[in-house]
Amino acid sequence: MDLLAVALLGFFTAGYFALAGADLGLGLLLPFLGRDRADRDRIATALAPYFLGSEVWLVAAAGVCIGCFPALEGELFTELLPVLVLLLAGWVVRDAGLWWRVHGGGAPDVLICAGSWALVAAWGWAVAELLDATGAVRVATIAGTVLLFAAHGLGYGALRLTGEPYRRARQLAGSRGGGQTFALTGTVLAALPLLAGAGLPLRENAAQGPVLGLLVPALTAFVPVLVAAQWWLWRALRDPSRRTPFFF
């Protein structure tokens, strides 16, 4: 049962990085792909339907960590407290920018971009901490994580954007096109948290007693529902004309 709990934690975390990396990557690139209000509206329309669904994967991963590995969760949250502060700040700022776009103006777009940068930098910092990277290696790890998220957002943009933002994303994505770029960067992003957390003593710190017996079957039953919902959302909104402009 403890091995299945570890697998669930890895699955939800990898899924979050691969899926949320798309909308976070677009947020990083907002001022580069969106040169005017109309362009930024297209970008917001492309990422808005997915960001809440992506965050469900992070909530699920946090639930597994807190419920199935309570002792290790306490140690990690204490050691990574500065990272978590930056992570939560970026999360709030980015999401606030998306919801406040309905009021118009340029400030919400600044919040989306700044929050995305803070979130991605925080994830890079967390990866560096888990890998015990120091000095120049730490800086390179954070910078590499940011570039990976940006590349993933670029591949996603080359698949789902329209108008001038699509043209710019397609040019930057290179000759392989959006699909191959998105698949490659998504695979690497999914593997990144698994690599960073490979050294954690998860099985040794798994909860005892009936906790795993209750949580793991419930979470396992939730997996096909989450995957099916995510697949439906992705398929249903392939056509740009079916995306509702929620935030403007």
Draw up the topology in text.
Blueprint lengths: L1 H27 L1 H4 L3 H32 L1 H10 L1 H19 L7 H24 L4 H26 L2 H11 L3 H20 L13 H27 L12
**Beta-strand residue percentage:** under 5%
> How much is the average pLDDT?
86
Overall 3D shape: globular
- Run of helices and strands: HHHHHHHHHH
How does this model look, in words?
The protein is mainly alpha-helical. 81% of the residues lie in helices and 0% in strands. It has ten helices and no strands. The chain has helices spanning 2-28, 30-33, 37-68, 70-79, 81-99, 107-130, 135-160, 163-173, 177-196, 210-236. Helix 1 runs antiparallel to helix 6 and helix 7 crosses helix 8. The chain is globular and about 55 Å long. The mean pLDDT is 86.
Key features of this structure:
single chain, mainly alpha, 81% helix, 248 residues
Concise account of the structure shown:
The chain has 248 residues and is mostly helical. It has 10 helices and no strands. The mean pLDDT is 86.
